[in-house]
Amino acid sequence: MTVNTQVLLKSRPAGKPTIDNFEIIDTTIPGIKNGQILTRTIYLSLDPYMRGRMSDAKSYAEPVPVGSIMIGGAVGIVEESKNDKFEEGDIVVTHTGWQSHAICDGRGVRKLTPSSAPISTALGVLGMPGMTSYVGLKHIGLPVEGETLVVAAATGPVGATVGQIAKIKGCRTVGIAGGAEKCAYAEDELGFDACINHKSNNFTDELAAACPNGIDIYWENVAGPVLEAVIPHLNFFSRIPVCGLISQYSMTELPSGKDYLPLLMRCILTNRTRVQGFIVTDYNTDFKEFISTMTSWVESKRVIFKEHRIRGLESAPEGLLELLEGNNFGKTIVEVSEDPTV
Amino acid sequence: MTVNTQVLLKSRPAGKPTIDNFEIIDTTIPGIKNGQILTRTIYLSLDPYMRGRMSDAKSYAEPVPVGSIMIGGAVGIVEESKNDKFEEGDIVVTHTGWQSHAICDGRGVRKLTPSSAPISTALGVLGMPGMTSYVGLKHIGLPVEGETLVVAAATGPVGATVGQIAKIKGCRTVGIAGGAEKCAYAEDELGFDACINHKSNNFTDELAAACPNGIDIYWENVAGPVLEAVIPHLNFFSRIPVCGLISQYSMTELPSGKDYLPLLMRCILTNRTRVQGFIVTDYNTDFKEFISTMTSWVESKRVIFKEHRIRGLESAPEGLLELLEGNNFGKTIVEVSEDPTV
Predict the structure, then answer these.
(1) Do B260 and A257 touch (CB under 8 A)?
(2) Regarding the domain delimited by B3-124+305-335, which CATH topology (the fold level of the hierarchy) does it fall under?
(3) Of A116, A150, A319, B179, which has the fewest Cβ atoms less than 10 A away?
(4) pTM over 0.90
(5) Contact B257 A260 (CB under 8 A)
């Protein structure tokens, strides 16, 4: 009998999560019933939103119950099917979470059609992070030729795609990333007009210098000191799509010191800035448009991507902790089992 | 020769403005040239935005230069006209500021057509504050039947109108005001479902109790502690039209203590809240629609209004200071000279 390895949420983190918040167990796989499919996970996606699901604070999604499998998107292969819609060997995108195998009824499972892109991109540029970038710009960022867009975590899967789409739309694009290597990649490979190292002592001045015409769109992935540095440069009618807040996910209480809320509110009033949160699933009806447009951009290399590969499901907890510290370089993909397409 | 009394901005305030920031002078009125009109000010409007124009911080409008006439909307009567579009005796709305008389070329001057409402309403419910309420709800607040709207400064000209429009749209309306008398007026006369006294020791609890289904629209007039109390109750897809920030206009530095910015950002992300600043003049094309709709609401008493009258132009500086402290009760109107229509 095949063993199913699963990573469970063992406890809720108080502040920064640790390895001890996870537990790895082996279970056995029961036979599947009519209507079900058995999938073997090939790639597991690690994403910042997972930090939110580890907590039970009010949010847009239910938290992962303690003792349950960590949620997450995955690419797998159908090993057995008693569902008319799937055949053995189908490559599928699922939401079956952090486990080596899964049984499900096929709902929410999408078959991957052959493409020139590797199947792992269904978790990145051609998946949730890519679509997040696409719909956030389409509905909130609203890039206009000649405007300046700033995005932090610029070499991550969302930031990199946001920057490249904004470039296609004719914007000046300024990335923010942690370290010289990432900044060089953002400028040389991703085509950002500039990329500023947020670890630099002169970060604020360098950001200002990179935005001589101010900032029209600030794509919010991180909040914290980056947001505080951006606010004084926001232009009239600027937009801030709020996609993530990685710097504050593990905050246990409001920080002491200056209160920056009046600074943001004043900026919003005097510039008529629009700040709006969103979740990719709010725009599911855009999926066909997204996948068609983005596939053509990827095939023509107008949009490129970079993966940060981790080997083995048992490495996923450490991989998520590293991601939350910004120690990934590109889209974090866990190689769970062999990819038959390469 | 007629004397023109003018109130000048003498100096920029450091923090709270004082009487010493203003200077009252008497000048003489020159003869008017072809194309010009001479108006006598009947009513001068005092509004919170004037605090912003006293400062030279970056904003949506140019500051009043030191030594110049304070800006402001007024209702006047044409005393002399060398402009084909105006006749002696016309009642007009102007932007001629804090002075007893003015000469202008007629641009931006609107003739008041006879209406069942007093001419001073052209500075209130049928003027800038009323239109601010109308367009802010139409374009950003987007009230839907059954939703809950919260507005502070609920007996001021904007807050009162916002609450009454939201009621017409079928919302539960919760006002916030300073003192029992204002709260009683908001509930008994303006039709708010509840009005909470922000000076109450139990303000936060009382606000929560008044919003059993959370808050869908928070109309921002004030910021500060009211905003902090509202944030935890905001619903999914809530909207915050940012119209004013009266609690922080005279702030000289960011306050020390807790940093509430992460609280707002988390709220925006997890609720997909939209926070957006606006200025009434961004929506000038809505004027005809506004004036037609609001006039019918005022005539049918579906929207009522209250004025806080001050006598004499020389009282305007003190009137503005009182307004900024929340000591007005209704729309502040300075009676500058006799109203021939009453």
Answers:
(1) no
(2) Quinone Oxidoreductase; Chain A, domain 1 (3.90.180)
(3) A116
(4) yes
(5) no
